[in-house]
Amino acid sequence: MRKNFLSYGHQWIDDDDIKSVVDVLKSDWITQGSKIKEFEELVAKYCNAKYAVAFSSGTAALHASLNGFYNLEGYEVITSPISFISSSNCILYNCGIVKFADIKPDTYNINYQNIKKQITSKTKAIIPVDFAGQPCDLDEVKEIANDNNLIVIEDACHALGAEYKNKKIGNISDLTVFSFHPVKAITTGEGGMVLTNNYEYYEKLLLFRTHGITKNPNEMHRNDGEWYYEMHNLGYNYRITDFQCALGISQLKKLDKFIKRRREIAKIYNQEFESIDEITIPYEKYNVKSAYHLYVVQFDLKVDKKTLFNLFRKENIGVQVHYIPIHLQPFYQHLYNFQKGDFPIAENYYKKALTLPLFPKMNDVDVENVIDVVKKIIKNKN
Question: Which member of 113, 227, 303, 360 has the greatest number of CB atoms within 10 A?
Answer without folding.
Answer: 360
